[in-house]
Design a protein that fits this description.
Blueprint lengths: L2 E5 L6 H7 L4 E5 L13 E4 L3 H10 L5 E4 L9 H6 L3 E3 L6 H17 L1 H9 L15 E5 L3 H13 L2 E6 L11 E4 L3 H4 L5 E4 L13 H5 L6 E4 L8 H9 L5 E4 L19 E3 L10 H18 L14
Parallel strand pairs: 1-2, 1-3, 3-4, 4-5, 6-7, 6-9, 7-8, 9-10, 10-11, 11-12
């Protein structure tokens, strides 16, 4: 029997976890006052809220494995986890399909100017807008992990030219024109009609879409971000949008969330905003539980876990 503590696991309820693993002891935490019940837990099934993660770690001296139901781990105390010898796994793979579809929806909306038509609809104006085709357009995908790979696959299927950017250069994948190292981002971004940001937030990616990178983009190019707001120099992006030095931005993530009401992004004409909800899907729970179940089997068998986070690189 394995002692598992479940707290704040997004759409996956403790009852669901308990029903899936009846042979194990599942401790459901609904409030921080109940954390004392998790003292014997060796496995945590939780989220990436930094305050709750801190409280959970303090309450579980026997913890050996922490599974976060988020794909990103930038909010978690990686140094302490590493020092305590706690294995950290993330939920990578559970969000690929819906986030990639959300990004492609952004790209389609931008190319067909659907945001402008929505504005025209509200104003009851019968007005034509200028469209662009996606076939043969270039999308630069910054971050070629599982989400970035799915974005590249979908974009390639539409007929787009795909350039992948990742930490180290490597061979091209099916449907990808070429893959370059991250230090060549400023070089290839000038080819982009759409810059898709799908990288994890780490010390290496924070601010990577810098003022200089943005200045090298085409005046018709769009920034499309479904990763983390802090990867982009937001003030520089806002300036470029206001000056019409880039074509637009479709954003699901921001430096400050919720996006403050006073942010200029709300009112810039060529900006599409969604509230950090690209990962929403009715199938997240089943994918998450399937991943955790396989990893729990591996944990009990002493086998390597899927999605083990490398503390040095931050993902």
């Amino acid at each position: 029997m394995t002692n598992i503590v479940v707290w704040s696991a997004f759409s996956t309820s403790p009852e669901t976890v308990r029903a899936r693993f009846p042979e194990d002891r599942v401790v459901a935490i609904t409030d921080e006052k109940e954390l004392h019940a998790a003292a014997d837990a060796e496995v945590a099934f939780s989220g990436n809220n930094p305050r709750r993660a801190r409280q959970l770690l303090d309450a579980t001296p026997k913890l050996r494995w922490y599974h976060t139901v988020s794909a990103g781990v930038d909010n978690l105390p990686l140094l302490e986890l590493a020092e305590r010898g706690i294995v950290l796994t993330n939920n990578s793979g559970s969000y690929d399909i819906q986030i990639a579809e959300h990004l492609l929806a952004f790209v389609f909306a931008a190319s067909r100017q659907l945001h402008r038509y929505r504005d025209n609809q509200r104003a009851r104006e019968w007005k034509e807008e200028q469209h662009r085709e996606l076939r043969d357009a270039t999308i630069v995908v910054y971050g070629m992990g599982s989400i970035g790979g799915e974005i590249a696959r979908l974009a390639g299927a539409v007929g787009m030219r795909v350039i992948g950017v990742r930490r180290k250069a490597g061979p091209s994948e099916p449907g990808v024109d070429r893959v370059v190292a991250a230090d060549r981002l400023a070089e290839v971004v000038g080819e982009a009609d759409y810059l898709a940001i799908a990288a994890p937030l780490t010390s290496a990616t924070r601010g990577a879409i810098s003022r200089d990178v943005i200045s090298r983009m085409k005046p018709t190019a769009w920034i499309v971000n479904i990763a983390r707001g802090a990867i982009v120099d937001e003030p520089a992006m806002i300036e470029a949008l206001q000056a019409k030095r880039i074509g637009g931005a479709a954003l699901d993530v921001f430096t400050t969330e919720p996006l403050p009401k006073e942010s200029p992004l709300w009112t810039i004409e060529n900006v599409i905003i969604t509230p950090h909800h690209a990962g929403s899907s009715p199938r997240v729970r089943e994918r998450t539980l399937a991943l955790f179940a396989e990893n729990l089997r591996r944990y009990k068998a002493g086998e390597p876990l899927i999605n083990r986070v490398d503390f040095e690189v931050g993902y």
